[in-house]
Design goal:
The chain is α/β, with parallel strands linked by helices. It contains ten helices and 13 strands. Helix 1 packs across helix 2 (34-45) and helix 2 packs across helix 9.
């Protein structure tokens, strides 16, 4: 845990990710990637003790182990609470009882996200993951996003392929498709963005929620290639409390978070 009055950027990101899960209660917390895993497990071990977490495979856990474990360590350190085969997992996620954090390669101001391809659909310049579970995730339960390198090539006016459904498309699909739809937060290495602002048609759109210590509002706006609502007063993202700092060190003893978000 750092004693520096200015918290380390990676720790601020972990706390911002944990805060994205605030208020979820008895939901399945399903962050994808190292820092999202650290942040999600930080929430489960501090402010949101009723969050359900998995071992990444087929069980729900009764403890909150560190990330980055070997296969043997994963089996040794988990306390299995419940077998969670695919049919039970889908039963959870189809009823809105899950909050996933994914990593988009592009995202627009309404939260439409691309994880599939860059360029034209018929002949993309780059092929990514594919659609994976993004369409079903965004329709069936809360989704947040983690962006480790905030820039105008990620935050774009229009994504090349819509994989995760944003607020404008969810509204167009109607109440059945949008009943569980919620894009809650986009946490990046520079800032936290929410959707607590509406456009002229009443559609939720990106709003700058906070900037991380040492980052200016102008820096975030310059690095954002889509329209971003900027309130008159933008808060500074908070650093970890002493308890959170201890938990971050426990959850990430090898410092994976600093490789993803190094100090500049």
């Amino acid at each position: 845990m750092s004693t520096d009055p200015t918290p380390l950027r990676a720790d601020v990101c972990a706390v911002a990710i944990a805060d994205a899960f605030a208020g979820d209660g008895e939901r399945l917390c399903n962050p994808i990637g190292n820092l999202p895993l650290i942040g999600g497990r930080l929430a489960a071990s501090t402010t949101e003790p009723h969050l359900a977490i998995t071992d990444g495979y087929y069980t729900l856990l009764d403890n909150v182990p560190p990330v980055g474990l070997t296969e043997d360590e994963r089996r040794d350190q988990r306390t299995v609470a419940h077998w969670n085969p695919y049919r039970e997992m889908f039963g959870l996620l189809w009823q809105g009882k899950r909050h996933v954090m994914m990593g988009p390669v592009q995202i627009d101001r309404f939260g439409n996200a691309n994880i599939a391809a860059i360029g034209s659909w018929s002949q993309p310049k780059s092929q990514m993951l594919g659609f994976r579970g993004a369409p079903g995730n965004t329709i069936n339960h809360t989704t947040s996003y983690w962006v480790p390198k905030h820039g105008p090539r990620v935050f774009v006016d229009s994504v090349d392929v819509v994989c995760g459904v944003g607020y404008d498309r969810a509204a167009a699909l109607g109440p059945v498709a949008s009943r569980f739809h919620e894009i809650r937060r986009v946490v990046s290495n520079l800032a936290v963005i929410d959707f607590e602002s509406d456009d002229a048609d009443g559609i939720p759109t990106m709003r700058l929620r906070s900037v991380h210590p040492g980052v200016s509002v102008d820096e975030v706006v310059e690095a954002t290639g889509c329209e971003l609502v900027v309130p008159d007063d933008v808060a500074e993202s908070r650093g970890p409390t002493p308890e959170e700092g201890e938990q971050i060190e426990r959850l990430d003893p090898t410092g994976l978070r600093h490789r993803e978000v190094p100090e500049s």
